[in-house]
Amino acid sequence: MAAELVGGAFLSSFLNVIFDRLSDPEIINMMKGKKVDQKLLQKLENILSVVEAVLNDAERKQIYNPAVKRWLENLQDAVYDADDLLDEIATKAATRKDPPPEGLLQQPRSGSTLEEVGYECFNDLASRSFLQPSNNAHKNSFVMHDLMHDLATFYGGKFYFRTFELKNVFKHDTKTRHLSYGLYNDSISKIVEICDSLKHARTLMQVNLDTYEFSKGVIDPCHLLEQLKCLRVLSFKSFYLEEDLLHHSIGELIHLRYLDLSQTLLVSLPESLCDLYNLQTLKLSKCKKLKKLPSNMQKLVNLHHLDIEDTELEEMPKGMGKLKDLQILRYYIVGKHEENGAGELAELVNLRGSFHIEKLENVINSSEAWKARMVDKKYMSDLCLEWSSGEDSDMVDSQMEKDVLAKLEPHKDLKELRIKGYRGTMFPEWVGQSLYHNMTELELSGCGNCWVLPTLGQLPALEWLVISNFDKVRRIGGEFYKDDGTDHHREIPFRSLKTLIIRRMPCWEEWESFESDDNDAPFPQLEHLRIWECPQLRGDLPTFLPSLKELWISGCEQLGCYLPRAPIIRKLRISGKQEARMQDLPLSTLEQLSICGEQQVEYVFDVMTHTQPTSLTWLEISNCSSAISFPRDSLPPSLQYLSIKNCMNVEFPMRHQQHHSLQSLRIDNSCDSLTSFALPAFPNLNELTIKRCENLTSLEVSQSQSVRELSISDCSKLENVRLPASLSKLFIRESPLLGERIQKKDPHIWPTISHIPYISVNGKQIRNDSTS
Predict the structure, then answer these.
(1) Residues 261-295: pLDDT tens digits?
(2) From 315-329, 358-372, 414-428, 481-495, the region with the lowest mean pLDDT
(3) What pLDDT does 156 receive?
(4) Residue 735 near residue 710 (C-beta atoms within 8 A)
(5) DSSP 8-state code for residue 115
(6) Element housing 4 (H / E)
(7) For the chain, what percent of residues have pLDDT higher than 70?
(8) Exposure string over 53-76, b if 16+ CB within 10 A, otherwise e
(9) Which residues of 545-582 are buried (b: 16+ CB within 10 A; e: fewer)?
(10) Pick from 132, 165, 265, 401: most CB atoms within 10 A?
């Protein structure tokens, strides 16, 4: 059954397409204009009908009858030729009246898009186990089962040619239509050698191989293009030639549907590219030198996918609104003229997925913004609106800026929204309206003129919120939470929010608390709260966050309020000079703890004397000058990572008991009382870093036989070490006494370290003849 499905699918699809074309009035009229014999056309259609009638029987017999298989291969070769001929005729007819071209997939007849038909075919193959999800790291990737691959290879036969699998490239068959090559070997040069006999090839596709051999010799893509005029799929992805990768001959590939030039060094594209009437997909992502698209891009009326992500394009070419079939256009760079401005987006109603509009500062009034008709783009799921930063951002008309953003209002089913660099002082009403019931992610950043945040608390599905670089916001008050007037009763603010990040708010001073009891407090589902680089913030923070798992506060020097009560918190990081106060620290649930400053460190150590941390695996303490020691002169039993930095008077626990969990230890400018450090037994310690311990004269690590890597730097008095046999890497920097002894291979210490495979002193490797 599977064999019949695989074999029949190719020829049946082609025959159906050919039947459609033979009945297309445009093609018939074109043939009449060329005085093509209509009886000949009828005879061809009759022959193809007979072929279709015997096709299924032949597909079954080819498995065990070589003669039938050869007949099918010859038939498929002829069908390919017929399809190429009809495609050429269809293209010439279409360029007169612009009907859509046809390919392997039959044209949708029920209002579906060609992509939806393709997805349906793909899902059908997956449901029949022809394809199955991959186990690798690539998201949404599929692989073909080995048995299905062998079956497909059998039916593909002479029509598929993988150059990297053949030692003798001249063994290829002239029936070959689909070619693949590896980027990092000489397989592309093999194709160049034989391209004269591959003039009917339809596919030239680069595939990723697990090899790092670069192409051998000089490749001339232009010669390839001059020979392979029937190509429908062409990939030069990651081809590291200079800007002459393409020349004007690309315009002669009239059958081309798919062109991938991503990750190349292209600076520009030839104008002849715009003659590719049938082109449906053009991929230019990560072309870091590409600054301009051809001026006649509007001629590519059948383009469905244009990927220009991560390029250096300065503006869009004129007339992009004529590409009404565009569905994937990740970026649009607004130009300064009407023909490449925001108004060109009006007709692109089929855009779907994510869409990013850049250089919105070129939209000069709300009328032009309204012409973009963003509200009509109902298939769009993610939208980013971005203004470029500039010196004149303080001199804009704030009301006009607000009106422009108001007219860029998207449809109400949007899932993700990002607004960057907005130059108004206030947001229009649509931003944050609860009518956006599907919005799960929202980012507002770089809005330097805004002095107040919009109402966001009533977005019912919002899970991820980032607010950053609002230079003039001094207060976040009740308007941040309150009802926007569209509901009859007030809902719990931010009832679905799971992640809140507020960063780089230089003037923010006050976060007004929301009046409520614990049962209807804001942020009932919040799991991650991060507040960074808000140097003027004094308070208050939310008082109760029942679902909080991670709290990270950094660079908030004035923050002096209590931290939120968080009964199930797992990670707590407080860095910088702020004096935020903690109470009821749940040591039983904490897994990671990073604290900075005397008050914080003293508080945590005091709590640890009364409550033993049972889940703590990661501990970092810093910037504490108080004379304190670890409770019970031992580490928490679950601890795996410990870092002590700028804590000169902290006493390191020296009790000679084993700590089985610790894997990484870092001591930096701390523990000044250490002069001779005999490291306690850590059976599972892998990494040890000793830095800026100026009083340390000797180091004994031989008891910890699991240590693999040791780094020592800025220890000016250290000269004696005893190291374990397990050590594989030793790094010494700015420790002159020890470094000199190692460089000279001092006989007093060299025998104890000569077994280490890799030794580096001040960045220079010390060779050991016995291990080299």
Answers:
(1) 998 888 889 999 999 999 999 999 999 999 999 99
(2) 481-495
(3) 66
(4) no
(5) H
(6) helix 2-22
(7) 76
(8) eebeebbeebeeeeebbeebbebb
(9) bbbbbbbbbbbbeebebebbbbeebbbbbbbbebbbeb
(10) 401
Q: Which two tokens stand for residue 43?
A: 């005879």
User: Where residue 584 falls among pLDDT bands split at 50, 70, 90?
Assistant: confident
Residue 715 CB neighbour total at 10 angstroms: 24
Q: Would you give the DSSP letter of residue 562?
A: B
Residue with tokens 């007849």: 109
Q: Among 60-64, 533-537, 677-681, which range has the highest average pLDDT? A: 533-537
Q: How confident is the model at residue 598 (pLDDT cuts 50, 70, 90)?
A: confident
Token pair in block for residue 479 = 């308007």
As a whole number of angstroms, the distance between CA 372 and CA 380 comes to 14
Closest CA to 132 of 152, 112, 111, 148: 148
Q: Give the model confidence (pLDDT) of 131-146 as tens digits.
A: 778 776 556 677 777 7
Phi, psi of 618 (to 5 degrees): -140, 120
The pLDDT of 193-208, averaged and rounded, is 75
Radius of gyration of the chain (CA): 34
676-678, strands of its sheet edge to edge: 676-678, 698-700, 720-722
Other CB atoms within 10 A of residue 146 CB: 8
* 264: nearest Cα among 289, 281, 247, 282: 289
* Per-residue CA distances from 387 to 370, 419, 423, 445, 470 (Å): 17, 8, 8, 11, 14
Pairing of the two strands 305-307 and 328-329: parallel
Please, what is the average pLDDT of the chain? 82
Q: What is the C-alpha separation between 477 and 493, in angstroms, rounded?
A: 13
> Residue 772: pLDDT band by 50, 70, 90 thresholds?
very low
391 close to 351: Cβ distance less than 8 angstroms: no
Whole-model pTM: value is 0.82
Residues 667 and 645: their CA atoms lie apart, in Å, by 6
Which residues share a beta bridge with 475? Answer: 510
In 3-state terms, what secondary structure has residue 340? helix
Taking a C-beta distance cutoff of 8 angstroms, is the pair 721, 753 a contact?
Answer: yes
Helix (H, G, I), strand (E, B) or coil at 544: strand
C-alpha span between 740 and 621 (Å, rounded): 32
> What are the structure tokens assigned to 702, written together?
């031989």
State the Cα–Cα distance between residues 114 and 339, nearest whole angstrom: 29
C-alpha of 247 from chain center: 31
Residue located via tokens 């670890």? 630
For residues 735 and 737, what is the distance between their CA atoms, to the nearest angstrom?
6
Q: What average pLDDT score do residues 241-253 get?
A: 74
489: CB partners within 8 A, 6+ apart: none
Q: How many CB atoms lie within 10 A of CB 308?
A: 23
C-alpha dihedral, 94 to 97 to 98 to 102, nearest 10°: -40
CA distance 65 to 7: 14
Amino acid at 581: R
Compute the distance between CA of residue 120 and CA of residue 114 in angstroms, rounded to an integer. Answer: 10
